[in-house]
Every structure is written in structure tokens, then in C-alpha cells.
From TrEMBL:
Biased composition, class Basic and acidic residues, residue ranges: 9-19
Keyword Ubl conjugation: no
Protein species of origin: Tenggerimyces flavus
InterPro entries reported for this sequence: AB_hydrolase_3 (IPR013094), AB_hydrolase_fold (IPR029058), GDXG_lipolytic_enzyme (IPR050300)
Superkingdom classification of source: Bacteria
Name listed for the protein in its UniProt record: Alpha/beta hydrolase
Disordered, as annotated region: 1-36
UniProt record similarity statement: Belongs to the 'GDXG' lipolytic enzyme family.
GO MF assignments: hydrolase activity
Limits of the Alpha/beta hydrolase fold-3 domain: 53-253
Keyword annotations from UniProtKB, A to Z: Hydrolase
Length: 282
């Protein structure tokens, strides 16, 4: 994870130089989702009758690459739905609410092709935050909501002051204090944007009316406490929610497809959640 702006620029240079790749049997089509650049990733046998809006992670600052493409392909293979990997605008050049607004734009683009009941929104890390924030903005604007939401390793409160930021800081090798400061400063325009805005920090929002939601978090990441609290708040709002705290896992473990069997198991759980939600609206 980049620790400062200089490292972020190097990280972006590497990402731009990366040749886009997807697994065999998977197609990748660059698309313009009403101004939000994206890639439609479809495994063999997948269709656009059901589609998933995928908002990738990267601390609101990093460019999505082949790791996110492989993850999108894995979910498409399991669900037979095409996945729209959205390259939303990045901070610090584009702080809040640019990324969320691009998520809303891409969702509405999909909703003109596929009924909302056949859509889902999925995000990891910062993309998990954007998944929830996008859904909240859609609800606020009166849009038809998707069948389900999935957020893995999501920062639910951008104040970054939850208890496990203290108790697990020595166990989380990825979300270090310097990386968290980079994310906070970038997305909040050096603290000039209020992190209390519920569309920035979903833990502070009224969550009533959101669709069935899956939250996944590792027990070794500093975001554990916020995700558990978010699950409690969703239950109190009478939202159907499944909160999974994965023992021994660190931030964004679901993307480590080749290296960890837990990643494969996680993606099986995500696919099962999506398929159950779609089946329930039939």
C-alpha cells in the first residue's frame, strides 16, 4: 500500500504500464458508462440479464489493475453474470464525492439495460465504502435499488477512530497509520470535507431501506470494529444483513486468488449471497 503521495505516483505509473489481462475464457470490453470509464468482464456463459457493478478498492487513490480483473472474472464465473468494473475518479485530484458520483452514474447506466432487481453492487476496501455510499445516494434520489450489496473490508467511518484502529494496529500489515493518513487526506481534501457526511461515512447514515447486504471483514484488520458496528446498525434498521468476520484474515484478502484458499472460499460466499438475493426477487 502506498504510504505517501510520492509512493502513490510510483504505484500509478506501474498500474498504467500494466497490460490488461483476464483469465482464459473471460472477455473484457472497455465501455463508457455515461462518462464513467469501465470494463465489462464476462466469464464464459455469463450474460447481461444479470449484472454486477464492481467498485474496486485502492484507498480511493489507486488505479484498479489485473488483481481486480481476476476477482471480477471469478465472481462472473460463479454467478454467470457480467461484471462492470468501474474506474471511478480518484483522489486526491478528485476527492469526495467524485468516486461516489461515478458509482451512481455507472449504476444508472446499467439500470437502463437491466432491471434493478437483476443488478447488484459489489466493492472491496474503499470500493466497499463506495458500494454503501452509492446505494444511499440512489435511495436518497428515489432510484430503484439493486437486489443486493456486498462490501468486503470496507472503511465504514472515514473518521478512522474506531476501537480496533487502536487494538489491531500492530496486527494489520496493510492499513498502516501512514497509509490511512494518505487516504484520509486525499479523500477529504486534507480534512476540509466533513467526514461526518453520512454519504462519506455510511456508519453515520440512516440505513433504512437498503437491500440485503453482505459485509465481510478480516479479524486482523483495523476495520473490524467499524464493520461489526455497521452490521448492528443495519439490523436495527431492519435490513437483511450477513456479517462475516474471517478468522486470521487481513485487509482485502479476497483478492489474493492464487495464493490463499480462503480467498476462493470468500468468493464462493459472495457468489452465494448474490444468487440468493436474485432468487428471492423472482
Amino acid at each position: 500500500m502506498p504510504q505517501n503521495l510520492a509512493e502513490l505516483q510510483v504505484d500509478r505509473q506501474h498500474s498504467r504500464a500494466e497490460q490488461p489481462e483476464v483469465p482464459n475464457g473471460v472477455t473484457r470490453q472497455p465501455v463508457d458508462a455515461d462518462g464513467a470509464p469501465a470494463e465489462r468482464i464476462c466469464a464464459r456463459g455469463a450474460t447481461t440479464e444479470r449484472q454486477i457493478l464492481f467498485l474496486p478498492g485502492g484507498g480511493f487513490t489507486s488505479i484498479a489493475g489485473n488483481g481486480q480483473r481476476r476477482f471480477a472474472a471469478a465472481i462472473s464465473q460463479r454467478t454467470k453474470a457480467c461484471v462492470l468494473l468501474t474506474h471511478y475518479r480518484l483522489a486526491p485530484e478528485h476527492p469526495f464525492p467524485a468516486g461516489r458520483d461515478d458509482g451512481v452514474t455507472a449504476y444508472r447506466w446499467l439500470a437502463r439495460q437491466t432491471k434493478a432487481e437483476n443488478l447488484a453492487i459489489l466493492g472491496d476496501s474503499a470500493g466497499g465504502n463506495l458500494t454503501l455510499a452509492t446505494a444511499l445516494k440512489l435511495r436518497e434520489d428515489g432510484d430503484d435499488l439493486p437486489a443486493s450489496l456486498t462490501a468486503t473490508s470496507a472503511p465504514a467511518d472515514l473518521a478512522l477512530t474506531g476501537g480496533t484502529f487502536r487494538t489491531l494496529k500492530d496486527r494489520d500489515p496493510l492499513l498502516t497509520e501512514s497509509h490511512r493518513k494518505l487516504v484520509y487526506d486525499s479523500y477529504t481534501k486534507n480534512g476540509t470535507i466533513d467526514v461526518g457526511d453520512p454519504l462519506m461515512s455510511p456508519l453515520r447514515a440512516d440505513l433504512t431501506g437498503l437491500p440485503p447486504t453482505l459485509l465481510m471483514v478480516g479479524t486482523q484488520e483495523v476495520l473490524l470494529g467499524d464493520n461489526l458496528a455497521l452490521g448492528d446498525k443495519l439490523r436495527k434498521a431492519r435490513v437483511e444483513v450477513d456479517v462475516q468476520a474471517w478468522p486470521g484474515q487481513v485487509h482485502a484478502w479476497s483478492l489474493v486468488l492464487e495464493e490463499a484458499p480462503e480467498s476462493t472460499m470468500t468468493n464462493d460466499q459472495i457468489a452465494a449471497h448474490l444468487l440468493r438475493a436474485w432468487a428471492s426477487v423472482r
